[in-house]
Design goal:
By secondary structure, this protein is of the alpha+beta class. The chain has helices at about 1-25, 25-30, 110-130, and strands spanning about 40-45, 45-50, 60-65, 80-85, 90-100. The chain contains three helices and five strands, in the order ααβββββα. The termini are far apart.
C-alpha cells in the first residue's frame, strides 16, 4: 500500500512539474540561455522558478512575481519579476532583481530578456566567486 501511495504522489508531483514547466516555458527558456540547472519548485502550493547555485540545493535563486507564480496562464497578477538568492545554509535571502509594483498598481516590467540577463550575470558571478 505504501508503494502505491508513494508512486501516486510521485506521479502527481511529476504532473505538477510538467504543468509548471509548460506554463512558464518562455521564462525557463530565457533563463536557460544564461544559466544551467533551471527548474521549478513549489513549497506548499507556491510556485517559483529556480536556478540552483549549489549541488546540494542549499543555495539557489528563486524567481516569482509579487508573491508566488500563478498556476494559470494569466500573468496579470504577477506585478513584475522578483529574483531572490536563497541561502538555506545561513537562513538568509537577498533580492537580486525586482521589478514588482505594489498590489493594485499596474505591473512592473515583465520583459524576460532583462530578467534572464540579470539572473544569469548574478549566477555566473556567484559561481565564479564560490568555485
Amino acid at each position: 500500500m505504501t508503494l502505491t501511495y508513494l508512486s501516486a504522489v510521485q506521479l502527481l508531483r511529476q504532473a505538477d512539474e510538467d504543468r509548471a514547466r509548460a506554463l512558464y516555458a518562455d521564462v525557463i527558456a530565457a533563463l536557460e540561455e544564461h544559466c544551467t540547472d533551471v527548474g521549478v519548485d513549489w513549497c506548499g502550493n507556491e510556485l517559483s522558478i529556480t536556478v540552483q547555485l549549489t549541488g546540494d540545493g542549499e543555495q539557489y535563486v528563486a524567481i516569482a512575481g509579487r508573491y508566488a507564480l500563478p498556476w494559470h496562464d494569466d500573468r496579470s497578477e504577477l506585478g513584475g519579476w522578483c529574483a531572490v538568492h536563497i541561502d538555506n545554509t545561513y537562513g538568509t535571502s537577498k533580492v537580486i532583481y525586482d521589478t514588482t509594483t505594489p498590489e493594485g498598481d499596474p505591473p512592473g516590467d515583465l520583459a524576460l530578456t532583462q530578467l534572464a540577463e540579470e539572473v544569469g550575470s548574478y549566477v555566473t558571478g556567484w559561481k565564479a566567486e564560490h568555485a
